[in-house]
Amino acid sequence: MAKSVNEIINSDEYVSEYLLVKSSALPEVYNNVMKVKLLLQSGEVTSVNDAVKRVGMSRSAYYKYRDDISAWEDPIEQDLITIVVNFAVESEALSEIVIILSSEGNKLLNISQSLPRSGFTDVMLSCNLGDDNKDLVALRRRISKVPGVRKVEFLND
């Protein structure tokens, strides 16, 4: 059962476990943690020690907060697309389509396949398009040329 407002206010519990807060409203240490993570992910530095020195924070502060903060990516700003492909069940089309999508820097988020009918199946692939893959016409053409593919639809182009 949900707690009343008075029960929440008079307790040591947080109002919500997670908050969406503008970066500029947080203490600088949180932004520095994100800078260290960025340096490590980009490969510009090879160790936490090098990253914290470059950012100008202590290793202990980084380790204290590193698991408690992460960047929020606005899904509206991402290039999300859903592709529906109908292809022959006996073909290797799905694996070839996945290779096409991933080799071009797209992040595959979900794959859903329908039950086969008359030797064909529909597969829905949701992905976040990579920076270099904005030409949807060319992408549709590449997928259409995969052996066994009968139909390709882009739902949110």
TrEMBL record:
<feature type="domain" description="ACT">
    <location>
        <begin position="82"/>
        <end position="157"/>
    </location>
</feature>
<dbReference type="InterPro" id="IPR002912">
    <property type="entry name" value="ACT_dom"/>
</dbReference>
<protein>
    <recommendedName>
        <fullName>ACT domain-containing protein</fullName>
    </recommendedName>
</protein>
